[in-house]
Specification:
Helices cover 63% and strands 17% of the residues.
Length: 185
């Protein structure tokens, strides 16, 4: 029995050491597994961040190109409209001169009809006349001053006295500023 006790005594410390070694190895594996798991989680988070940034960039690109396309379509006819503006001016001048001539009533009606059709067609394509009245305050951002003359009265100083040429917008973009005469201050 003493041999067994001695054997048991000898085996017991080895078992404790083995158990401690196994425990240490198990803890190392758990720590390694946690670090591997943490590494994978970190990599996954980084990939998610990259994906979200890429997705956001793509959405911004789509919005920007859609906006540019809309602007292109709305102003694609700008050159044609600018070419037609002097024709509109000529029609308006012709109408004012024809109104003075009472003998050309039928001619006036025909010219007026053609003018109205042209104006309506251009308005359907987005052309809008800018409304400027005599007596409005001059604004350098929305008006083009052709000249200044002495103001006929004190209340017209710095204000619009006459409109020489109408201004037009195509959509929200000004394609021709109204040319005005302003009163000197």
């Amino acid at each position: 029995m003493s041999k067994k006790n001695k054997a048991n005594d000898i085996e017991a410390p080895q078992t404790e050491e083995a158990v401690q070694n196994e425990t240490i190895e198990a803890e190392k594996q758990v720590v390694e597994e946690q670090t591997v798991e943490e590494k994978l989680k970190n990599e996954l988070q980084q990939e998610k961040d990259k994906f979200l940034r890429l997705f956001a960039e793509f959405e911004n690109y789509k919005r920007r190109t859609a906006k540019e396309r809309i602007e292109l379509f709305s102003t694609a006819s700008e050159d044609v409209m600018k070419t037609l503006l002097p024709i509109l001016d000529d029609f308006e001048r012709a109408l004012t001169h024809i109104e003075e001539d009472k003998e050309a009533e039928e001619l006036r009606k025909g010219v007026l009809l053609i003018y109205q059709k042209l104006v309506n067609s251009l308005e359907q394509k987005g052309l809008k006349a800018m409304t400027v009245e005599k007596g409005d305050v001059f604004n350098a951002d929305t008006h083009e001053a052709v000249t200044q003359i002495p103001a006929p009265s004190d209340d017209l100083k710095g204000k619009i006295i006459d409109v020489v040429e109408k201004g037009y917008k195509l959509g929200e973009k000004v394609i021709r500023f109204p040319k005005v005469v302003i009163g000197q201050q």
